[in-house]
């Protein structure tokens, strides 16, 4: 048996880290940098790195674990966040480039089976390509974001289903009616069995572990690996590829099997092992199979496939989007966002090369097509969203709404009075007297220990958009916010940070994806006394020029004892004043003095 070349593996990992880090700094997915560094250091150019049997084994395990992670990240409930016309547009972004890609390869004299592989590659889209860009452009709460997420889910799922059919056909070896029926039956049985196991059997396992009070993360991870490779073996028995088993396993271990904290930790482990270790080996080594000769021998096919991929994706999406009534400009914008390719395309193309269905030239074309199209996403999506924004056509669509406020003190109630004019507010406190007083004043409040998941569940935290920790105890504030982040994925988390020394500090905010309340360290007691005695004034000021909340605080630091609490936008909607926010012209800041 071949020994593992440690030096070769070390260089591959270092190269993957350098390439991936560089790509992420430029605003692109890490796999783009890993592919490019593999091309540069592999046989195609400098020839420093080469593949081996052991590298191939590690790469194969890497794509299995990566497909598990992709399955974990996909949530079928996200389809409900996009309108039905939006889903039609997402399907159009798959079907049109698929057809164009297929006939392009046929036109150049390619094999029909190879043409289907190319069609899949130009039809898929990548959520990883878009997620960073959506954050940077502040689009996560727009209708465009939900349609893009639905598009990624649909395209990846359709690609894998078609891929399953191709693998089954190749496994059959010849066209035979009974043989095709048998292969199709095995595939249907595989999907049916894994779906039933995921829906019914895995939750029973989770309930048993919780009932037995088994909380070992290591044991849970081992059990999940057994489930994953069990599903992979079932896929192989059914004549499919193991990545389909991994994908199905990921879909069903996402939610409802283990408790939220264990699930969150397991997801992080899969992320670190796949994306941080094994998957980069696959993408770097995939670059070894690329040949630069295509720029000389098949340049016309490369240019045509790339143009077909871009035009088909953008205008196919826009075409199917027209009946939605949301306008062709939004359809074009969605299409530009869906234009990036990613992990699923490269994985399928690599398997096609391994099975001998496509040549190294076609594989190289697909890799370069993925690189070129992905490079266009941040540029085109920035242009088109700015175009929509300038015309007032960028539609916001919140999937989660409402506030949970920790602390039933007078300042919390004062803020809740304003915030509940536009949204649902639930106040939580461990002091029964304060909770009863809040109820008497008409606030939706509940008694509970905020450090217990049950309290968050009773407050329906999984549906809430913002968590505000507003107590005098900074440590409790931070621990509760950490639980809101890790167990309930609440997007906006705002924490009161005390100026007292020795307590939790703002340095911890980044670890829990939170920002500081009032955009500054704040002593709570003086403001509680002021509000309780009504010894304060509420004032407002309209903003003339765009300014960050932190800069606003600095500009007003010389004024005597002020506390900015709210920002009201041009539509009258109010939000909490916090760090890392921008106040736009015509928005109003409400502050106490």
Keywords for this structure?
593 residues, sodium, globular, alpha/beta, 4-stranded antiparallel sheet, 8% strand, sodium transport
> SS-based structural class?
alpha/beta
Largest sheet: 6 strands, parallel
For the biggest β-sheet, the strand order reads 3-2-1-4-5-6
Q: How big a fraction of the residues is strand? A: 5-15%
Termini Cα gap: 76 Å
Helical amount among residues, as a percent range?
55-70%
Structure report:
The chain is of the alpha/beta class. Helix content is 60%, strand content 8%. The strands form three sheets. Strands 3-2-1-4-5-6 form a six-stranded parallel β-sheet, sandwiched between helices.
Question: Helix and strand layout, with pairings?
Answer:
Layout: H1 6-25, H2 30-41, H3 53-73, H4 84-107, H5 112-123, H6 127-136, H7 143-172, H8 177-211, H9 217-237, H10 242-252, H11 260-287, H12 294-297, H13 299-321, H14 328-337, H15 343-354, H16 360-390, E1 403-406, H17 410-419, E2 425-429, H18 432-440, E3 445-447, H19 453-458, E4 466-469, H20 474-486, E5 492-495, E6 515-516, H21 524-532, E7 538-542, E8 547-548, H22 549-555, E9 563-568, E10 574-576, E11 582-583, E12 588-592
Parallel strand pairs: 1-2, 1-4, 2-3, 4-5, 5-6
Antiparallel strand pairs: 7-12, 8-11, 9-10, 9-12
Helix pairs in contact: 1-2, 1-11, 2-11, 3-10, 3-11, 4-5, 4-7, 4-13, 5-7, 5-15, 5-16, 7-8, 7-14, 8-9, 8-10, 9-10, 13-14, 13-16, 14-16, 15-16
Pfam family, one: Na_H_Exchanger
Transmembrane segments: 6-23, 30-49, 55-72, 84-108, 114-133, 145-167, 179-202, 223-253, 273-292, 299-322, 362-383
Keywords: Antiport, Ion transport, Membrane, Sodium, Sodium transport, Transmembrane, Transmembrane helix, Transport
């Amino acid at each position: 048996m071949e020994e593992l070349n440690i030096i070769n593996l070390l260089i591959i990992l270092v190269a993957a880290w350098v390439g991936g880090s560089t790509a992420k700094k430029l605003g692109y997915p890490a796999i783009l940098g890993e592919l490019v560094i593999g091309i540069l250091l592999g046989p195609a150019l400098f020839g420093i790195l080469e593949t081996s049997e052991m590298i191939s084994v590690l790469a194969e395990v890497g794509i299995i674990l990566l497909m598990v992670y992709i399955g974990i990240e996909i949530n079928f409930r996200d389809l409900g966040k996009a309108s039905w016309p939006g889903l039609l547009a997402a399907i159009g972004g798959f079907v049109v480039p698929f057809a164009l890609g297929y006939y392009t390869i046929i036109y150049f004299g390619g094999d029909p089976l190879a043409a289907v592989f190319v069609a899949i590659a130009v039809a898929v889209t990548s959520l990883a390509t878009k997620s960073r860009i959506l954050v940077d452009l502040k689009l996560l709460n727009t209708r465009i974001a939900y349609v893009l997420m639905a598009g990624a889910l649909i395209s990846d799922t359709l690609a894998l289903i078609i891929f399953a059919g191709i693998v089954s056909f190749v496994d059959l070896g010849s066209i035979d009616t009974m043989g095709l029926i048998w292969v199709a039956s095995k595939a249907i049985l595989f999907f049916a069995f894994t779906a039933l196991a995921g829906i019914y059997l895995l939750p029973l396992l989770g309930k048993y572990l919780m009932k037995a009070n088994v909380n070992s993360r290591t044991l849970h991870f081992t059990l999940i690996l057994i489930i994953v490779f069990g599903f992979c073996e079932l896929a192989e028995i059914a004549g499919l590829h193991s990545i389909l088993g991994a994908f199905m396993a990921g879909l069903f271990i996402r939610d409802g099997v283990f408790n939220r904290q264990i699930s969150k930790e397991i997801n992080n482990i899969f992320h670190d092992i796949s994306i941080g270790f094994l998957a980069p080996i696959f993408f770097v080594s995939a670059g070894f199979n690329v040949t630069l000769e295509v720029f000389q021998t098949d340049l016309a096919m490369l240019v045509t496939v790339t143009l077909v991929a871009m035009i088909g994706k953008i205008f196919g999406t826009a075409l199917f989007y027209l009946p939605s009534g949301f306008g062709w400009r939004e359809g074009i914008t969605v299409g530009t966002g869906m234009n990036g390719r990613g992990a699923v395309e490269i994985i399928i193309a690599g398997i096609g090369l391994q099975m001998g269905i496509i040549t190294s030239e076609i594989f190289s074309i697909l890799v370069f097509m993925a690189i070129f199209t992905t490079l266009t996403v941040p540029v085109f999506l920035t242009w088109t969203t700015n175009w929509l924004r300038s015309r007032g056509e960028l539609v916001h669509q919140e999937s989660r709404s409402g506030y949970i406020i920790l602390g039933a003190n007078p300042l919390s109630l004062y803020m809740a009075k304003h915030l509940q004019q536009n949204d649902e507010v639930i106040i939580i406190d461990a002091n029964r007297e304060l909770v009863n007083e809040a109820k008497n004043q008409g606030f939706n409040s509940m008694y509970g220990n905020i450090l217990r998941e049950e309290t968050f569940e009773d407050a329906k935290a999984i549906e809430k958009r913002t968590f505000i920790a507003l107590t005098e105890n900074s440590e409790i504030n931070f621990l509760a916010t950490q639980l809101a982040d890790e167990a309930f994925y609440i997007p906006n988390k705002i924490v009161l940070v005390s100026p007292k020394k020795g307590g939790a500090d703002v340095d911890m905010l980044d670890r829990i994806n939170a920002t500081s309340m009032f955009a500054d360290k704040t002593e709570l007691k003086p403001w509680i006394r002021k509000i309780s005695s009504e010894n304060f004034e509420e004032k407002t000021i309209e903003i003339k020029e765009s300014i960050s909340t932190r800069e606003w605080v600095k500009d007003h630091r010389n004024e005597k004892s002020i506390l900015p609490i709210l920002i009201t936008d041009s539509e009258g909607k109010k939000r909490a004043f916090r760090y890392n926010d921008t106040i736009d012209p015509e928005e109003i800041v409400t502050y106490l003095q």
